[in-house]
Each structure stands twice: as C-alpha cells, then as structure tokens.
C-alpha cells in the first residue's frame, strides 16, 4: 500500500470525519421525520374537521359569512401554535377584492398564509396548498359541509404545519421554507391560487421548489372499495421526473400506499390535472403533485359530512404528504425541471 504523507493523512481524516458527521446528521433528520410525522393523529384531524365542516361554517362559500368563519378558524390555529405569517406580523390574510372573482363571489375574500422559515435556504419555498372554500347552502336551505371537499385537505395542512413547527422548536426545522397556503375561490374557478400565482406571489415563483396540493383525501371511491390503501397522484411526473421518483421513494420508505396514476393520463377525460389549485403553479413551470381520493356519491352534496371521513386513511395520507414535503425541504439540491 502506498504511503500517504503525514499532513495529507491528517487532512483526509478531518475531511472524512466531516463527511461522516454530515451523513449522521442526514440519518438523524430521516429518523426525526418519522417522529414528527407521528404527531399527525386521527384524533386531532377528527377534532378539527368536525368543527371546520360543521353547519356553523355554512358551507364556506367564497365571500360569505361562513367563509369568514373558516379563515378565522385557520388563523387561530396558526396563532395558537405560534406559526407566523409571511405577510406581516399577525396578518395571515391575502386580501382579494370582489371584482377579481368575475361576478361569482358576493364579496371580497382571502387566502390564508402561514410559514416555517427555512434554516439554511430560507429563500427557497415548498408550498403545501388546499382550498378553504366550498359551495355554500343549496337552494332548499341544506348546508353543503364539504368535509372531504376540501375540509380534509385543510385540516391535513394544519396538522402538517404543527408537525413542522414541533420540529423547528426542537432545532430540527426544514432547510427550506414551507408555505402553508389555504386558497379561496377554488370552487368558482381556482381564483385564490391564480391570485397568488399571477397577481401577488408573496414568495417569488422562481424560488418556489414545488407545490403539493391536497383536494379530497378523506374518503374512498367506488373503484377502491375493499382495497382502500390507495391515493391518486396527479402531475408528479409532468414537469420533474425527479419529483416523481422522490415521491415514489418516500412512499415506499414510510407509508407504502398504492399510488394510483389513473387520472395522471394526458388523455384523462375528467381533466383533473386542470381542475385544482396546483394547476396555477404548474402553468408557471413549478413541479406539482395533486393528492386526491377520487369522487364519491357525496361529492358536492349536503351529505359530504365529517362522520363519513375515514380518519385512519386521512392520517396515513397526510403523513405521506408530510414526508414528501420534508424530503423536498431538506435535500441538498432543489429538484430540477426536466
């Protein structure tokens, strides 16, 4: 074996120790991700959703009193957990004027924003989104509670935000910033996400690494009755193969759901890729994943109530999205577009 000069050997030893330390830190990060994911629980998801999808919120139609109750509920959650707004201290609402909704809303409305600032790359942003609105009250006076659509996505984000905050308080916060984005006006035509992306991106779109969008993850569709361990993913490979590969690897490592790509087909007659808020990020070349359980008999009906949510599935699916966000936020390099 060739001898190494003494000073060079010392340098190699120090460098090797540094590499080992980095590897140990990465392993610690991975281990801790599981710890924080376990703070996302059935009981807390259920407690929040029974409030958020109650009759008190009057179906959360954009611009109406029930929607105002919804944004106050979301804001209070962030305040109670000391999760700040990126807009300004105490101001969680991105105001959208009534005129922006093209005559479809009966008043001004708001997106709700909160975030965890990244510890190493704070200017790079991972956005987790869901729409906070629903379709309101039917003509016969029945309230459309929207427990699955999209109460399930809303409370999932609240639980993930809490998990990331616990991590940050433990000195284990994400390297990149995480934006928790609750958008309004989705049911009327993706207005809230369009306003954020096209009019007032609080963080520059060029700095946005990915958007993980959640719209209905608390139920089971007819196709999967009896084999409920599934989730539809849409868009994961359309702009970044790397994002798709990361998503698959995270699922296998932590959750092992059956990831169904039926609606990811370019020829999908339902055109779900264009029908939820991720699309306003995808059209700006931001890689996206849309998480979805498929439609069911209670879709857009007064019968979409919190007692019909499968909370164990909601917990598992939320943990999958948390792990994916954790991985995207903590990678050395941001994911690349194809």
Structure summarized in a few sentences:
The protein is an alpha/beta fold. 38% of the residues lie in helices and 15% in strands.
Tell me what the structure shows:
By secondary structure, this protein is α/β, with parallel strands linked by helices. 38% of the residues lie in helices and 15% in strands. The protein has 8 helices and 8 strands; from the N terminus they run αααβββαβαββαβαβα. It has an 8-stranded mixed beta sheet with strand order 1-2-4-3-5-8-6-7, with helices on both faces. α1 (6-37) runs antiparallel to α8, α2 (42-52) crosses α8 and α4 (147-169) crosses α8. Keywords: Signal. One of its GO terms (biological process) is proteolysis. Residues 111-323 form the Peptidase M28 domain.
Top keywords for this entry?
338 residues, alpha/beta, Aminopeptidase, eight-stranded mixed β-sheet, disordered N terminus
Rg for CA atoms: 21 Å
Q: What is the domain tally? A: 1
The CATH superfamily appears as: Zn peptidases
Judged by helices, strands and strand pairing, the structural class is: alpha/beta
Count of extended strands:
8
Largest sheet: 8 strands, mixed
Q: Show unreliable segments.
A: 1-24
Taken in chain order, the helices and strands follow as HHHEEEHEHEEHEHEH
What's the CATH topology name? Aminopeptidase
Individual helix count: 8
- CATH top-level class: Alpha Beta
What proportion strand? Answer: 15-25%
End-to-end CA span:
44 Å
Pfam family, one: Peptidase_M28
Domain Peptidase M28: 111-323
Keywords: Signal
GO biological process, one term: proteolysis
């Amino acid at each position: 074996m060739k001898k190494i000069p003494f000073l060079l050997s010392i340098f190699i030893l120090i460098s090797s120790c540094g590499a080992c330390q980095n590897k140990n830190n990465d392993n610690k990060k991975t281990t801790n991700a599981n710890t924080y994911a376990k703070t996302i629980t059935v009981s807390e998801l259920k407690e929040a959703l029974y409030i958020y999808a109650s009759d008190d919120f009057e179906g959360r139609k954009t611009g109406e009193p029930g929607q105002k109750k919804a944004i106050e509920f979301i804001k209070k959650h962030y305040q109670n957990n000391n999760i700040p707004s990126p807009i300004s201290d105490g101001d969680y609402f991105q105001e959208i004027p009534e005129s922006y909704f093209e005559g479809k809303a009966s008043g001004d409305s708001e997106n709700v924003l909160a975030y965890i600032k990244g510890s190493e790359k704070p200017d790079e942003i991972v956005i987790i989104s869901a729409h906070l609105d629903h379709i309101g009250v039917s003509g016969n006076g029945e309230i459309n509670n929207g427990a699955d659509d999209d109460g399930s996505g809303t409370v999932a984000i609240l639980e993930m935000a809490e998990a990331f905050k616990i991590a940050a308080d433990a000195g284990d916060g994400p390297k990149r910033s995480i934006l928790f984005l609750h958008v309004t006006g989705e049911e009327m035509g993706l207005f809230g996400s369009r306003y954020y992306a096209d009019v007032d991106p609080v963080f520059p779109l060029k700095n946005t690494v990915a958007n993980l969008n959640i719209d209905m993850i608390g139920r089971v569709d007819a196709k999967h009755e009896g084999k409920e361990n599934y989730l539809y993913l849409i868009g994961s490979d359309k702009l970044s193969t790397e994002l798709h590969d990361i998503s698959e690897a995270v699922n296998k490592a932590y959750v092992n759901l059956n990831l169904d790509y039926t609606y990811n087909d370019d020829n999908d007659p339902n055109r779900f890729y264009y029908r939820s808020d991720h699309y306003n990020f995808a059209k700006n070349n931001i890689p996206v994943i849309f998480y979805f359980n498929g439609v069911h008999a209670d879709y857009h009906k007064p019968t979409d109530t919190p007692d019909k949510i499968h909370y164990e599935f909601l917990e598992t699916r939320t943990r999958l999205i948390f792990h994916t966000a954790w991985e995207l936020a903590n990678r050395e390099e941001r994911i690349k577009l194809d």
